Structures are given as structure tokens and as C-alpha cells.
TrEMBL record:
This is Amidohydrolase. It comes from the Bacteria. GO terms for biological process: secondary metabolic process. One of its GO terms (cellular component) is cytoplasm. It holds the Pfam family Amidohydro_2. The keyword Hydrolase applies. Residues 20-244 form the Amidohydrolase-related domain. The keyword RNA-binding does not apply.
């Protein structure tokens, strides 16, 4: 039993590993009620679970209003800068270039968030051109929603973008989202070294995570929860009880994402 599982069975927050949630949100969602979605409530859950940091995009940004939502994300980071980093959400229909220009230099944002399914726009579309140019120039990671079979962010779309922009760090949110999607996500990641697999979702299991690590390496798989859309404790438990070696578990839970967030330090 390692230190994390020991803490869990003793019902106390773990402190042996820096856990970074690579895929989180904040605030209310318009289609259904999400309890305790405020940044303050999220921090209380993170404290209880020993999660040091989360990279967030507001639900408002990804769904209804990118401009107001990005401002809400920045405000959430201001409230707890040691606990949150923001994803800058780019909606291709809501002044994508203007939003990128407005926030690109803001240190509160450590990555870019794309949600082609919610925005009804393909990941390969030209309205994302400035995103890929910025990411390639700076090293900023781009988290995109993925879902096997989607017309907008299927693994073929991810493969095409990763092929065209091999130097960009692309975080494949949900790693394809379904059992077949996991299979295809692994295949794309094996071809495209810039693709990182992120493991949150309703269908992912511990054995799926262990297989991803086995086939693409622990430096290419990151823990994410979709919290508070999905309870972070569920996603965290999948990683903790997936049977990973201690070093691999440490990489997946936070070390890899910590490295990916260091790109701003190299801008001078």
C-alpha cells in the first residue's frame, strides 16, 4: 500500500503527491443543476482529497458566452491563484481571434480550451488557425474535447490536427470518451507524440488508464476529472486504484501536467 492509498483508507487528505487536475470547470451550467460549482466549494473538495491544483474553464465560457466566461475564469483564478490556473476558451463563432488577443499574455491562463462538440465546429476548421499558431509559437497546451464518432472532434479530427501541427501539445480531453474511443486514442497517440491523453469521463476505468500508460507512457497520460460537472473523487479513484506503479501514478496524477504548465516561464 502506497502513501496515497494509505491516506484514503485512513480517510484523510493525501499529501505525498502533488495532484493537478488537468480538466476541470467552475460555475453553473445552463442545462442542469450542478451542486457546489463555485470555486470556493471546489477548493473545499480539493482540500478533502489532497488535490493541489486544477486547471479550469468556466461552464459559461464553454457553452453560452466565451467573453463573459473567460472573464469569470480569470476571476476564479484571482480568488485562489495557488489552487487554480485558467483555460482560455475559444469559441470559433464568438470572436476567437479577439479573445485570444485579449487574454493570450495573461498569466492567469495556462492553456487553451476547445469544445468543438458544444460549438458545432470541426477541430480542423480554419477558425482555429490562430490557436494552433499561438500554441506552436509559445508551447501553450491546447485541451480539446474528444468523442469517438463525433462529426466535430472524432479521433480522425485529432489525428489530422496533430499531424499538421506536430510541435503543438494537444491534450485529448476524455481520450475519446468511449471504449472504442480509448482504443483509437491510443493508436493516434502512438503516431503523434504531441498528443496527451486525459482520462476523465463516464466510461473510463482503471484498466483503461493502465493500458494507456502501458502503451503510450506515463508522461503522455494526465489525470482530469471534469469537476464539478463530474465529481473529482470518482476520476481520482480510477487512477489511484488502477494498479499503476508508484512512479507512473505520480506522473499521471500531476507531474506531467505541472511540466506542461511551465511554458510561460520560457517566454522571457
Amino acid at each position: 500500500m502506497n502513501a496515497i492509498t494509505s491516506a484514503l483508507w485512513q480517510r484523510r487528505p493525501q499529501s505525498s503527491v502533488r495532484i493537478v487536475d488537468a480538466h476541470a470547470h467552475s460555475g453553473p451550467y445552463s442545462l442542469f443543476f450542478i451542486p457546489e460549482s463555485s470555486p470556493g466549494a471546489m477548493v473545499r473538495v480539493m482540500d478533502r482529497c489532497g488535490v493541489a491544483h486544477a486547471v479550469i474553464s468556466s461552464h459559461l465560457a464553454i457553452q453560452l458566452d466565451a467573453a463573459a466566461g473567460n472573464a469569470a475564469t480569470a476571476e476564479a483564478v484571482d480568488r485562489a491563484p495557488d489552487r487554480f490556473t485558467g483555460y482560455l476558451t475559444i469559441n470559433p463563432w464568438q470572436d476567437p481571434d479577439g479573445e485570444l488577443e485579449k487574454w493570450a499574455a495573461d498569466p492567469r491562463f495556462g492553456g487553451i480550451k476547445l469544445h468543438p462538440d458544444l460549438h458545432d465546429y470541426p477541430l480542423t476548421g480554419r477558425r482555429y488557425a490562430r490557436v494552433w499558431e499561438f500554441a506552436q509559437r509559445t508551447g501553450c497546451p491546447v485541451l480539446t474535447h474528444t468523442y469517438d464518432g463525433s462529426p466535430y472532434n472524432d479521433l480522425d479530427e485529432v489525428d489530422a490536427v496533430a499531424s499538421e501541427h506536430p510541435d503543438v501539445v494537444i491534450i485529448g480531453g476524455h481520450a475519446g470518451a468511449t471504449p472504442l474511443g480509448f482504443e483509437r486514442a491510443i493508436e493516434v497517440a502512438q503516431r503523434r507524440p504531441g498528443l496527451i491523453l486525459e482520462v476523465c469521463g463516464s466510461f473510463n476505468t482503471g484498466p483503461d488508464i493502465a493500458r494507456m500508460v502501458r502503451e503510450v507512457g506515463s508522461g503522455r497520460v494526465v489525470y482530469g476529472s471534469d469537476f464539478p460537472f463530474i465529481d473529482l473523487r470518482i476520476s481520482l479513484g480510477r487512477v489511484i486504484f488502477s494498479g499503476l506503479a508508484e512512479r507512473d501514478q505520480t506522473e499521471v496524477l500531476g507531474a506531467t501536467m505541472t511540466r506542461l504548465l511551465q511554458w510561460r516561464s520560457g517566454l522571457g
